[in-house]
Amino acid sequence: MQTRILVALLIYLGSYLPLSMILLVQDFTMGSTAQSLCSDWKNFASQCELPLKHPLLALGFFTLCLISLSISLGTIWLATPKRKIIVEECKHVPADLMNYVLPYVVSFMSLDYQETGKFLGFFIFLAWIFWLTYKSGQVILNPALVAFGWGHYEIKYRYEGDSISNTEGCLAKFQPLTGDALRYSSIDKVKILKQRD
Description:
Elements: H1 5-14, H2 17-26, H3 44-47, H4 55-78, E1 84-92, H5 98-107, H6 116-135, H7 143-147, E2 151-159, E3 166-172, E4 181-183, E5 185-187, E6 190-193
Parallel strand pairs: 3-6
Antiparallel strand pairs: 1-2, 1-4, 2-3, 5-6
Helix pairs in contact: 1-4, 2-4
Transmembrane segments: 58-80, 117-134
Keywords: Membrane, Transmembrane, Transmembrane helix
């Protein structure tokens, strides 16, 4: 199950929204809590200061991950079911959380936007994990999607009115059962099963 690289990148970046939040909090300037809130919104750029050491990087990474996750979930939600498939066998494929846990561990090892070398090394590390998960076809095994109730399954199925069986991975909001006749939609060669009829 190989997705296109742009779709895979959106799914991958969306899965790191919690990491971007951790880095955003770690970039927060604690001394700024004693200052009063800025109310001069017209002159915000010249009169106010964000309570972050590196606002462009911290907010940029957070915003990129938030937009990526929103686009991923929105695309799945908007996908319209087409033909029906008949499920012959189904096997749950657990998400390999190790690829996603390692960067979180690294973020607590004094990673800072100010330390350019460490940050670039961390970026290369994330890019390498993305490439490995993309090439292995496992990018859809995304903990962020699991948090929103989606599961990854390998199903043996046939199209309604056809006798030829196929085996493929799918993303489902429920556990497909043997004998289920289900409508599916596709996003970049990945079958999406949203509901039972």
